[in-house]
């Protein structure tokens, strides 16, 4: 007879969920603190090496980096937390007691999977409200070599744009619409594949005539070996602020709604959308990987502890979890390169390892 009762008793369910949450949270705190200290050790010299930066900027960096580390390593923490919880349950023969009471492997796992679902939902909200803001600012700050950047929204750094024979590089772009500003702009004008002039511009803003108004212009002519300077000039006719905005799309720094609108803009401009689309779908599948971890770690929960295979089972569970993250990163890279479709790159690893984990569970325990 098929047992359609997926949940154990209320007491057992709460006990399993509590084990899952406490172990995962403990691992997350320890892991994030260690990684944050290592990250600070690597970046503190660069931050303090900039004139004007102080210890307060180190704390500022730590505060911005912390949400990004939590978001990135929460699924790892859930995997390790599940392995610790399952190993403890197995070691104390609690799994044997639950199975002797008539609970199946799926019933034992269900409370943890439900708890992981709530964690995944919280992670999705956290990513969209906190991580995107931190990522947008810290990426722009690090790309600017930790030099001070203005507090405006919509900051882009190290933006490249090509039109006809002119290659444009903006060290920083910020603002919206008529308040759009390019800083430390460099124009490379090419003739027959050779760079003929290099123009450095301190600041550029769009005007109403479809041109850009330049301030602080310094031009080098390679053919004449001559440098000229001017306080103001104009150019870049036909290039719009939106082209600079679409030239560099960072899915990590955009919430899912804004990223969806950006994808529509890229399509309207007939620009590649593979990176943006893969990033959009990964905003969903990334938190979903948290739900997958109890299933992949379940191999450590079953089997007799006295058989001496508990450590081996724990290693197998850890290997399955880390194999998923490797496959996920590889598939995402292939999606960004356009080799895989965005749907396959983001959903493929989730479906594959969910089927693999379920097959192992059914084969060994059901």
> Roughly how many Å apart are the termini?
13 Å
Low-confidence stretches: none
Question: What value does the Rg take, in angstroms?
Answer: 26 Å
Count the beta strands. 6
Note the overall shape: elongated
InterPro entries: LptG, LptG/LptF_permease
Membrane topology: Multi-pass membrane protein
Pfam family, one: LptF_LptG
Subcellular location: Cell membrane
What would you note in describing this structure?
It is a single chain. The protein has 9 helices and 6 strands; from the N terminus they run H-H-H-H-E-E-E-E-E-E-H-H-H-H-H. The longest helix is centred in the N-terminal third of the chain and has 39 residues, at 10-48. Helix 1 packs antiparallel against helix 2 (55-91) and helix 6 (256-268) runs antiparallel to helix 7. It has 2 domains: 10-145 and 274-365, no CATH class; 156-248, no CATH class. It is of the alpha+beta class. 59% of the residues lie in helices and 17% in strands. Pfam families: LptF_LptG. The chain crosses the membrane at residues 68-87, 108-126, 284-303, 310-327, 339-362. One of its GO terms (cellular component) is ATP-binding cassette (ABC) transporter complex. It is a multi-pass membrane protein.
